[in-house]
Amino acid sequence: MKPGLSEAALHRPNPSSNEQIGLRELLAMSFFLLGLKGTDTTPEFWITFGGNAAWMSALAGFAYVLPFLWLTARLLSAAGDRGIWALAEDVLGGGGVRLVFGLWLILFLLATVLNVRAYALLLEVMFFSKTPGVFLYGLFLIVAGYVAAKGIETVGRLASLLLPYALLGYVALFVGIFDVLDYREIYPLLGTGEKAFTGPLTHLALYVDLLYLALVADRYVGGARTYWRGVVLGGGLGALSIAALLFVYIAAFGYPAVNGLVYPFQQLTRLAHFGWYINHVEAIFLAIWAIAAVVHFAIYLYFDLWLLQVLLGAGAFQRLTIPLIGLLFVAGLYPYRSFTSQYAYRDAKLILLTAVVFPSLILIGVLYYRKARRGSGRGRRRV
Amino acid sequence: MFFLPRQTLTAGEVLAVWRKNPLVTHRDELKRRTEAKKKTQPQTPIPRRLAPAIRRLEATFHFQANDDFRRRELVYGRRAAALFYFRGIADEDQIERAIIRPISLIKDGGRTHDPLRDQRLTALDIVVLETMEAVENALVDGHPVLLIDRLRRAYAFNLDDYPVRNIDKPTNENVLKGPQEGFTERLETNIALLRRYVRSPDLIVRRREIGQKNRTGIVVAYIQSLANPHLVADIESRLDAIEALEYDWVKSVEQLIEERPYSLLPSMLTTERPDRAMAHLMEGHVVILQDNLPYAFIAPATYWNVFHASEDHYQRLPYAWFIRSIRTIAFFLTLLTPGLYIAATNYHVEMIPLDLLMSISGSREVVPFPAVLEVFLMELSFELIREASVRIPSQIGPTIGIVGALILGQAAVQAGLVSPILVIVVAITGLASFTQPDLSLNLALRIGRFAFLVASALLGFLGLSLLLAVTLAYAVSFKSFGVGYYAPWAPYTPSSQDVFLRRPAPEETTLPQALLLRTKTRLDASGFFALFGRLSRRRAEKRTQAEGAGRSGRVGR
């Protein structure tokens, strides 16, 4: 054996405990943030926009978000990988940054409540009709909260460990339903026409989760560059999986019949079979989906906690977990009336998120570059 | 705990202290106390006259009451001397040959020599002692001690002869192919075994003793050119903390230096195989040996370390892959089979093929208990049998088989207490659990399966998956001496990818960098490149020759 490292190299950050994550973790987190949306009630939005071309709508939506991701990555790079908060503070000042990110937090919390509640409702309707939805809602919050409280290191590593199995699950599902697909259903190819491509513009918030990840860019090995590669590759993989699922939903259930299905993924898993003997395997897909959902909401809760901690100036991150979960649980007890109202709530939330997050990002970008032009900005680096 | 610093702690901090080992969290404070104590602790110098020294030793060792404490009065040159030792733990033949006979044969006019320079004293190892405490320690360690009148020093001869067990086959880590010897209870033998496997001048063996009245020998071994010095320092500082408390009896050093005593996951690998200890030393781990314990503790230990067996590397690649695959399947069977059975039969009956479902329902028809209670009772019975089989005297060992198979299996089914299918489920779970090579991991899985049983009884597959997510999150956040439990997977770090499967032996060249080793590869880098450089040169020469031949051929044609 020949000593290959210098003494200085021994002092490099320990990858196990430096509380940083790399491209693999970020890619997996992006995938779980976006990819899972194809398996809940979100496909209804894309199907409404695009009809038969819903799968194209999903991809178009991702394409529309790419410039914002690019802008975010540029800003992160300009901020010297300190995170978007630090850069926003430079251009908006202490009060401005609190106002903008306070709004972000409120909307993130709203999204968390509505989405977790929607998942609990899904479980109640499809699998646990005798179990109170509130119990499932609370359980999901506790489990996801536990994972989130462990920090981004744990969330990222858990996501990276589970990503291959999630992808394997998708492949298994596609193999399992291969013989029930009728590809003619996806025609007319352009579906509802131009609406298939303009519709997602008002609901860019369907992809807003990828911007959450910019909040903690200082935790990424490689900073802005890793962020850009992670969200593009992971988000792209997620968008592709959504598109593939939408394609399969339409091919399996037909259009417009698919529009009447509230939970197409779960219905699809009921159709999956492998030969004559292995059938009715939706429980196995439920297990995979539930783990993926835990990761998905753990990321949500992590960013909720992170924003709350920064806004309150709280010391320990974990101390906020129990109060936040309690708050979200109480907020999620709103009376449930119908699927239509649930859909309307989520629609309003998406429009609000789109109207707040994306313009505020543009505002930060414009202010930063104006400041930079005046010569007081920081040196910009290429992403 | 008395050694916790007195300060006001918040509820969260109290919880954190409860969850972590205070010996580890407060080690710096403990080390400071040890150093302060050492400064103030009085040491008794050896009296100039022999008589008071003898009186003190006789009083300390209860000379009148202790039949095996021996004193032999001698004359060394012109001076009176006394030799003390314990019969049975010191080699009396050697004492006579190497000490008493040479001293009694001195015929040089009564001149007293320095025993260290006395050529006639043939004992190999003579240690000079300056204090009475050191003399007492040497005596209980089995070393005969020579006290000489008007000398403020004593001499201990390394002639201990403690009864020890011979090197034997490992009892818990059997292999079909590979070395067949295990550690013993004697520290020196274990060090010798390590030295035999690691023939390198870089192997550092550092010995220390813990406790005042009853000292326990601890050895820390590592490869100097490989192990991260911060890791070694970390382990040493944890041992310093134990030393500060002067434990009279260290039962298992592992429990005193691990960070999370309540965790189901082991943070150190325990092995009774010197070859396994050597393999980890050569990957930059630190090995800790303890007196009177035929095991080595290896730190840090990742999931993969505890999951792998020694045999994996002695078997050829395809066989090793096969064995590991079986073990991986067994891992999940142990943890999940009872839970899966409950989830499938209680919540997701539609996934069971109809014929099988009818068979299960038929067999459960006469059983009066709900399935979950049935599983719980059978699993508990299996654990009872397993625990009894460890404690039962070997002469009546076969009784366990009769009790387990006939009474609990056949009779319970016939009495309608359990269904036959459940006996199969429990048998598969039990059988699978025996495949895990590490006892700690085995126990963790056995305990964990009860949690999965409860989760699946509550929410079927959803409960199983939620608990699995929590377990995985805990496991990836768990660290053993600062190294992630799932490294080199999560976090990803360069290694030979010896995880679920392994690479062919010649390709296992990268050392696991999760440990931040001093060295990156097992091979001498220059040798590696020289070899491949030569190969490529040879290839290039051949190509040139071939091209030349072709060209000349064409020219010839």
From TrEMBL, chain A:
InterPro entries: Spore_GerAB. It is found in: Membrane. The keyword Transmembrane helix applies. One of its GO terms (biological process) is spore germination. The chain crosses the membrane at residues 45-70, 91-114, 134-149, 161-181, 201-218, 230-255, 283-303, 310-336, 348-369. The keyword Membrane applies. Keywords: Germination, Membrane, Transmembrane, Transmembrane helix, Transport. Pfam families: Spore_permease (PF03845). One of its GO terms (cellular component) is membrane. It is a multi-pass membrane protein. Belongs to the amino acid-polyamine-organocation (APC) superfamily. Spore germination protein (SGP) (TC 2.A.3.9) family. PANTHER family: SPORE GERMINATION PROTEIN A2. This is Uncharacterized protein.
TrEMBL record, chain B:
The keyword Transmembrane applies. The keyword Lyase does not apply. One of its GO terms (biological process) is spore germination. InterPro entries: Spore_Ger, UPF0353/GerABKA_families. The chain crosses the membrane at residues 397-430, 450-476. Coiled coil: none annotated. Keywords: Membrane, Transmembrane, Transmembrane helix. GO terms for cellular component: membrane. Belongs to the GerABKA family. This is Uncharacterized protein. The lineage of its organism: Bacteria, Bacillati, Bacillota, Bacilli, Bacillales.
